Amino acid sequence: MTSGIRLIASDVDGTLLTPDHRITPAVRTAVRRATDAGVTVVLASARGPEAFRHIVAELGLPPFAESPSDDPLAGAFVSFQGAVVGHFLADGSLDVLHETRLDLEAAREIVRTVVAAGHVANWYDGAAWLPSRWDELGELEARATAVEPAGFIGDAQLVDAGARAPHKLMVPPCAWDPELVPRIAANLPEGCEGFLSGEHYLEIVASGVDKSSGLVQLAADLGVGPAAMAAVGDGPNDLGMFAHVGTAVAMANASDAVKAAAAWVTASNREDGLALAIDRLLG
What we know:
Elements: E1 7-11, H1 25-36, E2 40-44, H2 50-59, E3 77-79, E4 84-88, E5 94-99, H3 104-116, E6 122-125, E7 128-131, H4 136-145, H5 155-158, E8 168-171, H6 180-186, E9 192-197, E10 201-206, H7 211-222, E11 229-233, H8 239-243, E12 247-250, H9 256-260, E13 264-265, H10 273-282
Parallel strand pairs: 1-2, 1-11, 2-3, 11-12, 12-13
Antiparallel strand pairs: 3-4, 4-5, 6-7, 6-8, 8-10, 9-10
Helix pairs in contact: 1-10
């Protein structure tokens, strides 16, 4: 390896995965080539930790790799938009390295607003995904992430004094009122920050939390500076990462704004764009 890159951060949906949520053989091979070269590959997404489990396993990253790694954080990921940074241990358990939760009362206020409008809210606490109700949007989420809900939002989240605040809330696009999600995003309580991912899904986390904050924490753990870091992504929620790395790469399926923030553009997620990017980054 001659490029000096020591860490490659990759978005998941729209970057690592094809539109039908697959990892192509070329992408698997490129990720393996990077890790074999001593480069730490970090996955960064609005998805929760459990949605990373099958992806990490399919990529052959630790602890699911065929051979052990000298990299103590190999297989690490930035989940919930940066609210949980972790990796899986050899026994399959989740090791949380860094976490930031929403304010509980602010989270409750948002959920009540969404539910009162007749729409669905999603509450994420560690491995647990709790929708406010089950519908076709929940079915889509379950298929896309290979994660099933642990129950439904209820008094344990919205009333009980001992409730834990969520790491993230998610509000999917509303077909019958397209302006609902923008209204909610524009009126979030203090201390909350909203990002759009995928097809205008509103991801809500604590202020100051985004993929870049999680990536910076991991980079500090590894002792890697910005010049030795690269990021590949396709969405506006990847722009924070782009600003914190030495080399930013946009997918061909990204918006013009994301492409404009990148050093260069690779092929689309239909055309093994991440694999091509990794090959070029390795030099």
